[in-house]
Amino acid sequence: MPQKNSKILSIVIPVFNEINFINKLFEQIELYFNKENIEIIVVDDGSTDGSSNLLNELKQKKHYKFLFKLIKLDINSGKGKAIQTGIKNSRGEYILLQDADLELDIKDAKEMFDMITKNKDIKCIFGSRYLSGKLKKNNYFFNNLVGKINSLIFNIFFSQSLSDVHCGLKILHRSVIEKIKLSVNDFGIEIDLASQIVRNNFFIYEFGVSYFFRSKAQGKKITWVDGLKSFYYLIKVRFFDNSASTNISILYSIIYMGYVGSYFGMGLGNTLFIIIFAILGSILGIHFKILSSTVIFLLIYFGSLFGKGNGTTLSVALFFVLGIFIARKTKKYFLNTSFSNYF
Prior knowledge:
Elements: E1 9-15, H1 22-33, E2 38-45, H2 51-61, E3 67-73, H3 79-88, E4 94-97, H4 106-118, E5 124-128, E6 136-137, H5 141-158, E7 170-173, H6 174-177, H7 189-199, E8 205-208, E9 211-212, H8 224-239, H9 244-261, H10 268-287, H11 290-304, H12 310-333
Parallel strand pairs: 1-2, 1-4, 2-3, 5-8, 6-9
Antiparallel strand pairs: 4-7, 5-7
Helix pairs in contact: 5-8, 7-8, 9-10, 9-11, 11-12
């Protein structure tokens, strides 16, 4: 829980070589968040362009009501590390993550803050650049495409329906922060954060925000390499950062779904079906533990006993769908019981 002398809001801002945006950033913060019960935590991630000196000047002026904390990292360690450092030094009941480059509007951050504080049932809001009916400037097709693909993959892996996993504007209640343990130091922090929130059964709300894209010449840090690394992080958080029981369930589901695939096609086509169904099994294993997976497998096996040739294939497919339906009902029934880890 936040400390006794905590604030209502902590705004964590990672900064790396943003000298061209810092003054305007603070003008916007003063306009929308200039209150005594708010703290601004700027983490200078080893800037070398004069950002450090400018931030120190702003801190010494003290013409604002909010508490200004300035933390300097000696070497550039990545956005994720800066965010982790800021969160560890925060005291707010709510933590708002805001990029320093003003691609995302501070006014939207204020709207998200007002929204989450007025509805105590909401613990987490992610900004979305794709839901917005607001002003938008974006001419970088590749970044846009990768962002949408990553969000789609994340949704498949975690049974979500998010439109923009990578948006840097987010606000979280302290209860969410206390349940997660961030470890990624670079731009993969967005995937790490979203996956841990979902694993801890918090619902992620989305809010459409404005987006003003900046070019590499203007200081854009993220590159195509980060886009490729994001695919690695998606695989990591879904298939490796799991409990032992989930990993066993994934392996179990891969095996029996490979068995299902063997009933489809012939020759090379049969091999392809086995691979496709094994991949599908890896996803099923995430959502269904051993006993609910066994329900699916038994119904598949039962279906394989009927018909011949294409008739068997159809029977297996039908009993597979039936197995999914029953497994979901069974999982829901045992969700809040001592047996939930097995279903």
